Amino acid sequence: MHDTMTRSSPTTTRQIHIGRLRIDSVAADQAYVWKSDTADVERDACYILAIPISGCMTLTQCGETKIVRAGEYVLLGQRGSTALSAAAGLRLLMLHIPATELRGRLVSVEDHIGGRFCANERMTCLLVDLVKGIAELFADRAPPNPQALATEIVSFVALTLGAEDRGAAIDVRNTRYQLRRRIFDFIEKHLGDQNLSPRKIAESSRISMSYLYSLFNDDETTVGQFVQVKRLQRAYELLVADPKGHRTVAEVAYEVGFKNVSHFSRSFSRHFSIAPRDVRQVGADPGAAARPARDRKVAGSRGFGTTYWEADRLQETA
């Protein structure tokens, strides 16, 4: 997501890179305005979690206005123009999260845009302290194992968003949401099944293939892309947790449902900008993580490469 900033006085913005994530630390001495430019969403494909540390700000998005106070957060989306404004003294953290990361963890992530639901107070406190602490600790140096830390940060963001009280708003899509939740849980439980297919997923919930595809279109992804991201995330967690190599890369690949190790390695390297074997080396030698990692380009639906469900198999109908 491109953005432009209007400054009526000196404003400093410091970028902190945590693996594939980026935190912008903003300090504005006087009035501050931030505006997004979503003309090239496909290339950027990210969400922004905005957290005012001091002062409060006004969010204007899709014609609606909301006040976000210090210690709160708001998720900014990719659709429509967005503007943040604040008086003097604003201290703001903006966490840039690749869209595929949240879509692979949270049902109907778009529903949470703009603070639509009531946040869970305790989870919010933990999340704000986490992001603030990470920005302070690693402002001048890379964390040990930045990619693993990025994974944990995104997981906690998804957990916090998922804890929001959806009952505080009239959600006409509640039935659809519950169905998506069941489907996501089914996929999570069957990631290791190499024969997991869209048809099997649809049959588990007794819905048609076309309706299954429409559910994933809510988050601008496909069934195959979603499952592949989930498998890569699971593989990353297994590799990081096993720095001594008790399981080979091939064993991990098969455990998370890949049929071909070479395809797994290529997909993993493309998604995380690091080879599976190197993730294990970083876990065994934290000092290696201090070396800069390549910034991963997170693309839209075309950025995943070909999964084994692509082409005619994805055209199956009930």
Describe this structure in words.
- The strands form two sheets. The chain has a five-stranded antiparallel sheet with strand order 1-4-9-6-7, with no helix packed on it.
- The longest helix is centred in the last third of the chain and has 18 residues, at 223-240.
- 36% of the residues are buried.
- It folds into two domains: 2-168, Jelly Rolls (Sandwich), CATH 2.60.120; 174-290 and 300-315, Homeodomain-like (Arc Repressor Mutant, subunit A, Orthogonal Bundle), CATH 1.10.10.60.
- With 318 residues, the chain is an alpha+beta fold.
- The two termini are 37 Å apart.
- The model is unreliable at 4-9, 38-43 and 283-318 (pLDDT under 50).
- β6 and β7 form a beta hairpin.
- The chain has helices at 41-44, 99-103, 121-137, 146-162, 174-189, 198-204, 209-217, 223-240, 249-255, 261-272, 276-284; strands at residues 2-7, 11-18, 21-28, 32-37, 46-54, 57-61, 64-68, 74-76, 82-86, 90-98.
- α3 packs antiparallel against α4.
- It is globular and about 55 Å long.
